[in-house]
Amino acid sequence: MSDEKVRLSLDEVTALSRDILTHHGLSARHVEAVTATIVAGERDECASHGIYRLLVCVNTLRTGKVVKDAVPVVHDVARALVRVDAAGGFAQAAFHEGLPLLVEKARQNGIAALGINHCVHFAALWPEVEAVAAAGLVAFACTPSHAWVAPAGGIKPLFGTNPVAFGWPRPGDYPYVFDFATSAVARGEIELHRRAGKPIPEGWGVDAEGRPTTDAKAALDGAMLTFGGHKGSALATMVELIAGPLIGDLTSAESIALDDGAGSSPIGGEFILAIDPAGFLGAEAARHIERAEQIFDAITGQGARLPSQRRFEARARSLANGVEVPRQLYEDVRALLG
Ligand code: NDP
Ligand code: PYC
């Protein structure tokens, strides 16, 4: 595949996403919410969750597994708990509906959790933990996906790629954020390797017979592997539990069974926790949050980088100069306009 690139402004990426999603019948509320997350992914050079996701979204819309005009409903279920019924729609609009009440409850109680139910999830989680951290709160988020990943020691897909994301507010700076799949890599990254005809590194997946493979398609058809062996496997299990049964929603195995071969994005729930440092610390919160900076300085001071640092640098570049997209991907995405 050619390495040729096309340069686009962020306004052009936004317009392209809006046009495609509208063309495929998504309601205005979801067009805006989904476009915001796709543009953010492309802007921050997260290739597996940028405009490539338009192919994934449209595929999901074509399966009929997502409700195109779903209206999320917020439920104030307890002093520190919010639920949003996404009503079968994409998760982004449900998150935006639930965020204000989550923030309000975290400030009132020191801690609050948001459970999103009945959503379709195709996205990165960092936009959500960034939004919680922007309110001065510490954030954690996770979601199951489809059963694509074998548990450590096994070879059969059971877990989703199950991302975990964390955000920590840093006054006057971008928050400290990490967001990664509990599989060795996001599935989207393996799909991008398959599209580009490139081998994948060892350790990302096994073929259908459970043999280690560097062939992207063989790994997609076989099983992905967790990161860090049994450690990633346990974290993936935690995600299944707290964003599945704990909030009354689907596991990754149930999600892929419901998909029934249609090829939609994962269906189920998402769990988001928000903690207000002032809940523990009152007037001392600012002083202790400031102490956290010593940890970040000690990381960068020895030449290591913070997670999301690459992304924030990419953001600054893209805001100034736009983004570069592989030509073939751009053409495949434009073809979605029919
Ligand atoms: P990566 O392995 O690419 O990176 C994940 C995190 O690690 C980022 O915060 C990244 O920061 C940080 N990082 C990478 N390299 C370094 C380094 N050398 N030093 C310090 N930090 C580093 O991500 P994944 O492939 O695991 O996941 C990609 C995305 O896919 C995530 O956003 C995730 O939410 C999404 N996803 C969504 C799923 C869903 O069901 N909705 C399922 C699976 C994944 P930086 O960005 O700055 O490089
Ligand atoms: O890349 O693994 C992935 C993924 C699953 C759902 C959204 N992204």
Question: What can be said about this structure in brief?
Answer:
This protein is of the alpha+beta class and 338 residues long.
Structure description:
The chain is of the alpha+beta class and 338 residues long. Helices cover 44% and strands 17% of the residues. The protein folds into 2 domains: 1-63 and 308-338, Malate/L-lactate/L-sulpholactate dehydrogenase, four-helix barrel (Hypothetical Oxidoreductase Yiak, Chain: A, domain 1, Orthogonal Bundle), CATH 1.10.1530.10; 71-183 and 226-306, Malate/L-lactate/L-sulpholactate dehydrogenase, NADPH binding domain (Ribosomal Protein S8, Chain: A, domain 1, 2-Layer Sandwich), CATH 3.30.1370.60. Strand 6 and strand 7 form a beta hairpin. It is globular. Pyrrole-2-carboxylate binds next to helix 6.
Quickly list its features.
17% strand, alpha+beta, 2 domains, Hypothetical Oxidoreductase Yiak, Chain: A, domain 1, two-stranded antiparallel sheet, seven-stranded mixed beta sheet, Ribosomal Protein S8, Chain: A, domain 1, 338 residues, binds pyrrole-2-carboxylate, binds NADPH dihydro-nicotinamide-adenine-dinucleotide phosphate
